[in-house]
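Please annotate this fold before class:
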Amino acid sequence: MRRKPLALKLYMDMYLAEVAKMSFKRGENMRGYKMLYNVANGIFAAGKIGEVLYKQQGNKRNGIYKTNLLANTCKILDILAQYTPEENREAFGARASKSKLYLETCNNLNRHFSTYAKSFDAEKIAQAFNIIKPILGGDEKRIVDKMLKIYDALV
């Protein structure tokens, strides 16, 4: 028998706790239907997250070790942002997209430095600054731009 991953179990427990809080008193049905809608979305999200994790485990069993954990994490964040309750969807979606940007930047940096492990020069560092630039704040981004302009002027 296949065990549920811990994240999936916690997500389902959270929504089942929401069902227990529901009230079906007269006049509160709208709140109850909204809770049921949120619970249904939670179950759909848990199912989709389970599919992503099951594919990852299946690839390991079949000897395919090229599964990118960061890409799977990005998929899970997309699923959570899609099925988050409407009250929290905008805030969670913004945080999820920012987290996804950080994960993709980390993945690009890992790929960049793993391909250039033997030879390392100023051009590789300039490329790394270009990879990091999207996640930097205003002041840091200006500093990196100035450094890249100086590099271009020297080369």
